[in-house]
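Much of what follows relies on a compact textual record of a protein's fold. The record below shows the convention in full:
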Amino acid sequence: MIVDELNWKILKCLQENARMSNAEIGRRVGVTSPAVSERIKKLEDAEIIQGYTTFVSPLEVGYQFKALITLSAFMGMLKPFLEKVKTYDEVVNCYRITGNENIVMEVVLKNQRHLQTFIDQLIIFGETKTQIVLSHVIKYSEVKPLK
């Protein structure tokens, strides 16, 4: 599917606010609400739009901090880890990466004891390194057209 300029305008609106009505998007991009609806459906069918979500503030629901944890998997432990990581409630994002580490995870934790317990669960799979997140510099940035 070709993502033309109008589709990018629609995507920009949805990335700003996924709950924006088709009528409001239409007003902003200069087409009718049914035209917006049809284009959104095509973008969903082409898996360009992969879903809609709500962002919850971990701090406001009781988590004290966020951390990034990298894992260098031991020989033969990467595949078991890739299955196990899906069961950890603490993990909000997990990426398989290139380089010295195999995995980087973004996790939310209640306190230092929770961090220690969580790391204890990970060390059977490999060596870990932890960085505590102090603040977001860029948060949920939109995907923009290629130049």
About this structure: DSSP finds five helices and four strands in the chain. The longest strand covers residues 65-73. The mean pLDDT is 96.
